Amino acid sequence: MPTKPFIGIDLGGTNMQIGVVSPDFKLIGQAKRKTKADEGFDRVVDRVIEGIGEACMAAQLTPQQLGGVGIGAPGVIEPTKGVVVEAVNLRWNDAPLADAVSKRLGKTRVVVDNDVNVAVYGEYKLGAAKGSKHMMGLWIGTGIGGGLVLDGKLHYGHFLSAGEIGHTILFPFHPLGSRTLESNASRTNVSNRVIKLINSNYKSKLTSELGADPEKWGKEVKSKLLAQHYRGGTNEDALVIEVVDDAADMVAVAVANAVTLLSLEKVVLGGGLTEACGKPFVDRVAKQARELIFPRNIADRVEIVASKLEDAAGIFGAAMLAIEAVEKK
Fold first, then answer.
1. Cα(126)–Cα(269) distance, rounded to whole angstroms?
2. What is the pLDDT of residues 217-275, one digit of tens each?
3. Which of 23, 51, 241, 328 has its CA 20 to 30 Å from the CA of residue 3?
4. Nearest CA to 21 among 31, 6, 32?
5. Do 109 and 143 sit in the same domain of this protein?
6. Residues 6+ away with beta carbon under 8 Å from 277
């Protein structure tokens, strides 16, 4: 167990969440900032440092009292160097994030990993997958990301891209741009499909809730609204249920393939769509996946569950990676 508090940071293309994790693994101070990636790398680092200061103040300590900092960033990461190799939504290439933050904090140890990897690691260490050795996390939101823990360690693969389940091909003969799990089952695609069907004169209760301008509907049909009209929602809608269930079924195919290939004992589902739609969505994925897992006699023993830490998974996972990096020294 660490003797000092650590910082965990979930750095997204739009927002960043920063949390102080105590030695007994409690979240004792938080801060949020807009990322504003369009202002450039240095300004994003400025906001990271500001957020660390604010979170430390909320926890009634100073940055000098920290044991280290962990950051989950989008894109392809070189974790041993703390470099963001490529992050499309940040518009970064070969960005030395760990060094930049460390220097600003007086050489504090900083580790950087992929944002979904750290969320999955948080669930593995402290959340829904605690106690397992072979697991996968699959996060469904704007896109679909994944991460793997094999034999108790984050698995990166030779090219550091292991776990990118959103980019697996489900429909190889579909038109380009509609072949992958992400392009069919992400929240973005679910929203777009619902909107397209409404515009094609399919009946939906959403019609009366959307504004007069169809061009703006994409900003309105988000996870929370979909959940209100999904199974168990406040105003169930047949069209939304069908489209979200279709997405769940496609996720189930990907989950079953991963479990069969890697002999996984647990799969954790997270991300905005999963958290909003809740148990009915997770149960649908689990039921459909178990019909497809090989060998059949293990299907009922594979646990397919919802994220326990939800929004805080990235904070806790990033902090845990920093703790382990410092303890190895």
1. 15
2. 888 999 999 999 999 999 999 999 999 999 999 999 999 999 999 999 999 999 999 99
3. 51
4. 6
5. no
6. 223, 226, 227, 230, 231, 244
Q: What is the pLDDT of residue 14?
A: 87
Q: How many domains does one find in the chain?
A: 2
**Taking a C-beta distance cutoff of 8 angstroms, is the pair 125, 134 a contact?**
no
Same domain, 236 and 99: no
Range of the domain at 18: 6-122+312-328
Both tokens assigned to 197 = 């069907």
Provide CB contacts within 8 A for 87, sequence distance 6+.
13, 73, 74, 75, 76, 95
Query: Sheet holding 92-95: strands in order across?
Result: 76-78, 83-87, 92-95
DSSP 14: S
Do 138 and 277 have their domain in common?
yes
pLDDT surpassing 90 at residue 211: no
Please name which of 3, 38, 34, 5 lies closest in space to residue 20, comparing C-alpha atoms: 5
In a domain, 127, yes or no: no
Helix orientation angle between 313-328 and 115-126, rounded to the nearest 10 degrees = 80
Does 234 lie in the same domain as 257? Answer: yes
- The answer to whether the pTM exceeds 0.85 is yes
